[in-house]
Amino acid sequence: MSKIWFLENVNLFKILCPHKFKDYKDCHNFTHYSKSDYIYFEEDASNKVYLIEKGKVKLGYYNEDGSEVIKAILCKGELFGEKAILGEEKRNEFAQSMDNKTSICPIGVTTLHDLMRDNQTFTLKIYKFISFRIQKLERRLQLLMFKDAKTRLLDFLDELCEDYGVCCEETGKLKASHPYTQKDIANLIGTSRPTLNLIMNELKDDGVINFKGKEILFLKKSA
């Protein structure tokens, strides 16, 4: 079962974006970003949450030595900046556009609280989403600190399988069409692209996966 079971068949953008609501439609605008534009920085005021209409956004922070740590890469329909809902005052991460035509729906925390107050079912989904996001990031950071690159990749592939996997009629195996480039995956698991390519090809040679572009076929469970 998908780890995002509580958001299955729910596009956050479609049901939460203020332009869907009569009381907010006239005062609501989308914000457009080019590749590498920052949506917010660390220490910025945390007074909005954001929905991705289109494009791709990465979340991360910088170590003391200036190196970048990527916490998540998000795509159309996903929510970020959600800790503002819980009372966060300043950002502890940056958010940066990864596409030339990224379109974001910013929602003020007060507006979001009003919308959530009128929809208890969706409020529950939002809080479950936040809980899941925190657990997922904590696990990824633990992997970055304590596990080797192959273990980190295998864990990431498990996520892809659960979040994007569908049964391939021809083979009966799970196939995942995902939104990540090789550079995205390397950033997310904290390794270099050459190392990622080496491990991916090793898994392919071992008959664990097959891959082409942004599609991965899971042939068997890794040991």
From TrEMBL:
GO terms for molecular function: DNA binding; DNA-binding transcription factor activity; kinase activity. Residues 147-222 form the HTH crp-type domain. It comes from the Bacteria. Residues 12-91 form the Cyclic nucleotide-binding domain. Signal peptide: none annotated. InterPro entries: cNMP-bd_dom, cNMP-bd_dom_sf, Env_Response_Regulators, HTH_CRP, RmlC-like_jellyroll, WH-like_DNA-bd_sf, WH_DNA-bd_sf. One of its GO terms (cellular component) is cytosol. Keywords: DNA-binding, Kinase, Transcription, Transcription regulation, Transferase. Transmembrane segments: none annotated. This is cAMP-binding domain of CRP or a regulatory subunit of cAMP-dependent protein kinases. It comes from Lutibacter oricola.
